Amino acid sequence: MTAPAVVSEAPGKTSEGHIPGETGIWVFVLGDMTVFAMLFAGFVYYRAEQLGLYLESQAALNQTFGAINTLLLLSSSWFVVMGTDAARRDARALAQRLFAAAFLCGAGFGLVKFFEYREKVLQGLTPVANEFYSFYYMLTGLHLLHVLIGMIVLVFVFLRARTGIRTASDRIFLEGSATYWHMVDLLWIVLFPLLYLMK
Amino acid sequence: MIALLRHPATIVWLILAGVTVFSWWLGTDHGVGAPIEPHVNITTGVILLSLVKVRLILFHFMEVREAPWQLKRVCDAWIVVVGLVLIGLYRFATPGN
What is the pLDDT of residues A15-30, one digit of tens each? Predict the structure, then answer.
């Protein structure tokens, strides 16, 4: 019986597949995704009990802000994919610029959220206004916290990109960080239609 | 710059952006009829589209496509279970749907 063929010399990569980062990151990511999934399910469940209130409250949401935020996060993920690619090819300056662009998209997202929250609060729609708004602030707030953490992570990725990927630890850090950032994008992808578009 | 755009991830981005704009258009009030009325099939479609986007992100941005089959299965299972629960609750637990 012959040994399985090894596809590349990158650690962890065999013909059976490559886990981006390491297993631990995926345990965290899938766990976090599951926590959000339960919050989403809770939202849809409670919505069913006060449909009129939820529909009426949703009508005040700014769907354009929501769509812009979706496009910002999708773009930031593209920048992270390209940055990861550049870092792997040792195109360090390019990698740094791409990660910087991803960071700016994240900052753009935060800025839109600031204006959106401000608009809501000025309309008297605070987290205690009603059950829909409690969910709205809790879900988007928890997500925003993830975005802010991701932005801090991107700063470290940007700094590390200067010296390049030289060790397994560098690779794990780069891929793990990218995985986390894409997760933040992924969560918003589900959140946006549930809060803003669901009728 | 052009070389960057030729990357497969760019096609994925275009699809994701296109689906986003389409979903947003679908889900936005078009002023026809009472805007407070629920639109069951449109919303179901919007939720399904969001899960298609999730799969694209997982498999193409997060590199699950090149991951061991166990991780692929777990990711697909998450998508299926979340889809069933959210659409199930929406269609069957929501009054009037």
Answer: 689 999 999 999 999 9
